[in-house]
Specification:
With 310 residues, the chain is α+β, with helices and mostly antiparallel strands. The chain has helices at 2-22, 86-136, 143-189, 240-243; strands at residues 28-30, 33-43, 46-50, 55-59, 73-74, 79-83, 192-194, 199-204, 211-212, 217-222, 226-234, 247-252, 260-273, 278-286, 289-290, 294-295, 302-308. It is built from four helices and 17 strands. A six-stranded antiparallel beta barrel has the order 2-11-14-13-12-17. It has a four-stranded antiparallel β-sheet with strand order 3-10-8-5, with no helix packed on it. The longest helix has 51 residues, at 86-136.
């Protein structure tokens, strides 16, 4: 019986030692801090840049003619390539010409309105003059001529209304042609490959001369100036409100280099407790370069995060 008891105690001690070792990276280092030693550096912003239009890749280079390759540093909104847009550019040029024609037709319609107004004014003046003469000297102007002048006034008024309607149609036509230009320009832009963020082009999936369909990835871009350091906190020891917003010190250990430290704050606390009993937290860290253009923090690295507890 004593032998079985001794075996049970030994197994219990081993289990407790294993549990203590598992949770060693999530226990406070002192009364004010919590150290997470198994953190991972990950990319905050990264994208597989897709083609927006079907076509053949015409070139992969910037507007300045610089060739785009892996490792190329890009900025948000920078052109890094273009699909063959000959057809799209021709459609845009045709839309511009149609808009110019519609503008001329609008000017012509407005001139017709001015002419109709002037014609109506002259016809009305002639009618008024004839009526005034007959009022002074009865039947000086024949009734048939008076009726013809009245008809001229009526016809001039109707022509003015028709001309005004033509102006409205011309305005709508001009707006329609302008909308067609906008659609054509959007179509041309969809043939451009533009980086949506600042970062480094880490992989090219296509080469000039290859065909792409909408949604096919062309390049992968990763933002490096701001990264994310993620870790897990023991839910049985620390409440989310104790961790959220707290200041942290991120420590990176690299081969043959002194440790590098970064200051930040906890910006996210997951509401989900994982099966392991931990919940995920992360801090966004401003990266910096070392030895030229090489970044200190890189996605996939391990890091240590010291959280300053209240």
């Amino acid at each position: 019986m004593r032998t079985r008891l001794n075996v049970f105690i030994a197994v219990l001690l081993v289990a407790q030692s294993a549990m203590a070792q598992t949770g060693a990276d999530r226990v406070p280092t002192d009364s004010r801090g919590l150290t997470l030693s198994d953190c991972i550096v990950s990319a905050k912003d990264h994208i597989q840049l897709p083609a927006q239009q079907a076509g053949v890749i015409l070139l992969l280079e910037t507007e300045d003619g610089l060739s785009v390759e892996e490792g190329f540093v890009v900025t948000a909104g920078q052109l890094i390539g273009k699909l063959d847009d000959e057809d799209a550019a021709a459609r845009r040029d045709a839309a511009v010409l149609d808009h110019q024609v519609s503008m001329k037709e609008r000017l012509k319609a407005e001139s017709n309105v001015q002419a109709a107004v002037a014609t109506e004014a002259v016809a009305q003046a002639e009618l008024d003059e004839s009526l005034d003469v007959n009022q002074r000297v009865r039947n000086s102007i024949p009734a048939t001529q008076i009726r013809r002048q009245e008809l001229t006034v009526t016809r001039s008024a109707m022509e003015k209304e028709v001309a005004a309607g033509d102006v409205e149609v011309a305005v709508f036509t001009t707006q329609q042609r302008q909308a067609q230009i906008t659609v054509a320009e959007i179509n041309v832009k969809k043939h451009q490959i533009v980086s949506p963020l600042d970062g480094i082009l880490v992989q090219l999936y296509r080469k000039p001369g290859e065909w792409v369909s909408p949604g096919d990835p062309v390049a992968r871009i990763v933002r490096m100036d701001k990264l994310r350091v993620e870790g897990f906190v023991d839910a049985s020891r620390y409440l989310p409100e104790e961790i959220d917003g707290r200041e942290v010190t991120v420590i990176i250990r690299r081969p043959n280099r002194d440790p590098e430290t970064f200051k930040s704050t906890i910006s996210f606390v997951s509401p989900i407790v994982e099966a392991s009993g931990d919940y995920r937290v992360w801090a966004e860290v401003d990266n910096r370069t070392s030895l030229g253009s090489h970044w200190v923090l890189r996605p996939g690295m391990q890091a240590e995060m010291q959280i300053d507890l209240p």
